[in-house]
Specification:
globular
């Protein structure tokens, strides 16, 4: 008996697609996309760019409409005040 198919990419990683976000890449060129997309698979950035995500992505397990939000891929905010954990 074959195992049931699981959502994900060819290598089994789940894929997250974030669309319609303002994306600040924080790269050396200061690249930003006003209405961009970000694709994450297996915990790694697979693609990012202007406009909607490419058509035909397989294994998409979650889509997020991030209209009105800022995405900073790869940037970890290490400036945190102890009391902020309770206000999340």
């Amino acid at each position: 008996m074959a195992a049931p198919a699981t959502p994900g990419t060819a290598d089994g990683a789940e894929r997250l697609v974030i669309e319609n976000a303002h994306i600040a890449t924080v790269d050396a060129a200061g690249t930003e996309y006003a209405h961009g997309h970000l694709v994450v698979a297996g915990g790694r950035i697979e693609a990012l760019g202007a406009g909607p995500a490419p058509e035909g992505l397989t294994g998409v397990t979650r889509r997020v409409d991030a209209s009105g939000h800022l995405v900073t891929p790869g940037l970890v905010n290490t400036h945190h005040h102890f009391y902020q954990w309770i206000t999340r």
